[in-house]
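Holo model, zinc ion. Inputs:
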Amino acid sequence: MPFIRNYGDGRQIWKIGKDLGPNVQTIFEQAGKGNFLSSINVIFRGSHFQTPKKFDTETTLKIIEEAYQKPEEFFSVKEVPKITVGYIPKTDDLMHHAGFDHPDYINEVLSCDEYIGSLLSTLKNIGYYEDTAICIVSDYGNYKAQNMYDLEPFFQKKGLIPYVPKKEVSDFDAAFGSIGFFNFRGDTWHHHPTIKQMRNFEPSGIGSKKLDLFETLWEIPGVKLMYYRDDNNTPDRGIIHLERRDKKTGKIMKGRIEYDVHGKNQKTKYTFDKEDLFGYENYKDVKELLDNKAHTIDEWLAATNQIDYPIFIDQLPRYFKNPRACDIMISIIGEYGFGYEHGKTVATYPYSHDIALKKSMTVPLIIGGSLEIPSFEIPYCKTTDIVPTLLNLLGIKPHWSVVGNTLLNYKREFTF
Ligand SMILES: [Zn+2]
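Output:
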């Protein structure tokens, strides 16, 4: 079990690159030699990280512009960056705190437009525009939770004590917008609990009773879906258990995802007892994949990209294979927002984007700039296709661990 970190803590988030370990490579590490720039990009390993004066849109994009104008101030070799990654944290921040319908949020999006425009005219002025590929991908879609609910009293009543580093007695850790990620104490905090341990859990609170944690979490208002891993899972093979509660009857439907991994290729099989948990049966293309056989990420993507729970059967095991993953995940699907993080209700705002509905999962992707980029539209792709596509434009083959494929090969299939 790796070291426990809270990436929600403003300082720890910068350690993600270190935590990723040597088995995966950032786009910079895959691109060989050259100048690489990160402008407020969180996973900056292998690049020059320029510490910003402010974490706003203008600063992110102006740093990039300056690196083209005066590369000698950023790098020991006076050359414009070969790859630059800019991340704009301010829009996400405003979406959560003010809302996607708030003027401040809308103004920040307009600010992106303004400073991308400024960057483009600088690239044109200094003669780099036609040699530069620019990829713009937005934050994912949003929703507004219908109700807000403070969970602190619920956990207190159950005698469940939140995890605090260095404190001896604690039972659970959770982050919970409208999706709840729960970790519980196993033999120690460095062991995941078994299903049996979670069914017979002894909370540390004074006078508390033994709990079946699965039953306990179903008591949280609005819970509709619950997922957890099987005890015997390995990174290459395992089962994720799926449960869905019918709102009217209270009946629980059960299903499972079985995954099997060879090298970087994962195949997943989705089965259910009586009823389909995700409404996939209503769609002919998806129904064909419910054939008691395992399927690849691209098969799931092709069949589910226009509906709720897109690519979900592939994605959920990828999450649970991570040793840092939670033990039980529950989803409210936006009916309630909890703003609960690591022992406290910290947020009272209903805006987020953590649910697996189509409206929250579809984002635009634009690649433009260099004349070498072929002009076409594709109906869908996955986020992991972006890095191989950009590396392809540089003539570089991605690291073996990269899951996605270059979009430039899609051209023949999807020319409009
Ligand atoms: Zn966010």
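Residues 92, 96, 353 surround zinc ion (CB under 6 Å). Residues 12-141+362-414 form a domain with the Alkaline Phosphatase, subunit A fold (CATH 3.40.720.10).
Archived with the compound record.
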